[in-house]
Amino acid sequence: MIIDNSESVVEEKSFQFAVRIVKLCRYLQHNKHEYMISKQLVRAGTSIGANVAEGEQAQSRADFISKLGIALKEAAESKYWIRLLWATGLLSDLQFESIYTDCQEIQKLLVSIIKSSKQ
C-alpha cells in the first residue's frame, strides 16, 4: 500500500537500521559479553522494519496505520535500549550518537507517514 516515496525510504532505512542492530548486538555479545540488553535491542530494532514491510502489504488504510504505529513503538523501545547501553558504558559516545540518530530519523519518518495517512 505504497502511497508515496516516503514509505519506500522508511522501508530501506529501517532495513539498514536492522542490519546495524544485528551487527551491534553481535559485537556486544562477543566483545562486551552483554546478552540481556542486546537480545531486547535486537528484537525491537529488527521489528521496526518487519512492521514497515507488513504495512506495505496492508489490507486497508487502518491496517497500514496500525502496522506503522507498531513500528513507531518499536523504534521508541530501541531508543530506550540504545540509551541504556550508552549510559552503562557499553557504547561509546560515537557509537551511541550514530545509531541513536538513525533511530530518531526513522521515528520522524514514521510519524510523518502516519500523520499524512490519517488525512
Q: How would you describe the overall organization of this protein?
A:
The protein has 119 residues and is mostly helical. The chain has one domain (5-114): Up-down Bundle (de novo design (two linked rop proteins)). Helices cover 85% and strands 0% of the residues. The chain contains four helices and no strands. It has helices spanning 5-31, 36-56, 61-87, 93-118. Helix 1 (5-31) runs antiparallel to helix 2 (36-56) and helix 1 runs antiparallel to helix 4 (93-118). The longest helix is centred in the N-terminal third of the chain and has 27 residues, at 5-31. The chain is elongated. The model has no long low-confidence stretch (mean pLDDT 95).
Q: Which of globular, elongated, flat, extended, rod-shaped describes the shape?
A: elongated
Radius of gyration: 15 Å
Specify the helix fraction band: over 70%
Q: Give the C-level CATH assignment.
A: Mainly Alpha
- Mean of residue pLDDT values: 95
